[in-house]
Design a protein that fits this description.
Layout lengths: L1 H49 L33 E5 L3 H6 E3 L3 E2 L2 H5 L14 E2 L6 E2 L4 H8 L5 E6 L3 H12 L7 E6 L12 E3 L18
Parallel strand pairs: 1-3, 1-6, 6-7
Antiparallel strand pairs: 2-8, 4-5
Length: 220
């Protein structure tokens, strides 16, 4: 009887030991899971911090690609910014042959501006005059400008070298855009680093001819 009693006492002790081991193992797993969650949260925070947009330029009024804080060196960090619009100011012919994916094309020379457009009725651009003092060619020029370049978006703009972007930014400034939300990311011709290869579409064999025109607009 005593032997049986001792065995019965040993069994609960063994079971208790197993339970303690299971509890300890479960606790360790919970700690590891908690650490993984914390690491994930830290990674997300670091990513969000890394994607925080810098001031567009060091000097106010410097709209050159050289003075831009987002450029060929770091643009890959800002390719998928929420509530941002990516715009290419080159003509469709150039855009069709080589362009950055997910960029909208809004031709600067053909559509947006020509210095003589407000005086020459054969020209169809939206604005004439100096880019620092743009003259609307149509009664709807300003409305179309704000439709193409939304004022509530962060704008990343490129062309071939960055010069057209600087002129476009002068027009936007003249129409009271918040220039802290607009970036001159330079020219596509400078994005030759291999890290950009997956984002660039090369279709050199494609040749297109484009005729630009606005229908139904009233000239000023």
């Amino acid at each position: 009887m005593m032997k049986k009693l001792l065995m019965l006492l040993v069994i609960p002790a063994v079971l208790a030991g197993c339970n303690d081991a299971d509890t300890e193992e479960t606790a360790i797993e919970e700690v590891e899971a908690t650490e993984e969650v914390e690491e994930t949260e830290e990674t997300v925070e670091e990513t969000e911090e890394a994607r925080e947009l810098p001031a567009p330029r060091e000097e106010d009024g410097d709209y050159s690609a050289e003075g831009s804080s987002v450029n060929v060196g770091n643009f890959d960090e800002f390719m998928y910014v929420e509530d941002a619009l990516y715009i290419d100011l080159r003509d469709y012919e150039d855009y069709a042959q080589l362009h950055m994916k997910n960029f909208e094309v809004i031709p600067f020379f053909a559509v947006m501006h020509n210095e003589e457009a407000h005086e020459n009725e054969e020209m169809i651009q939206l604005f004439g005059g100096e880019t620092t003092d743009p003259q609307p060619v149509y009664t709807a020029s300003e409305a179309l400008l704000k439709e193409m370049f939304p004022q509530d978006k962060t704008l990343f703009i490129m062309c071939q070298s960055g010069a057209r972007v600087a002129w476009m930014m002068e027009i936007l400034e003249a129409y009271d855009y918040d220039m802290d939300n607009i970036y001159n990311i330079g020219g596509l011709g400078t994005y030759t680093d291999s890290k950009y290869a997956p984002y660039i579409t090369n279709t050199e064999e494609l040749t297109i001819q484009v005729e630009y025109d606005f229908t139904g607009l009233t000239r000023n």
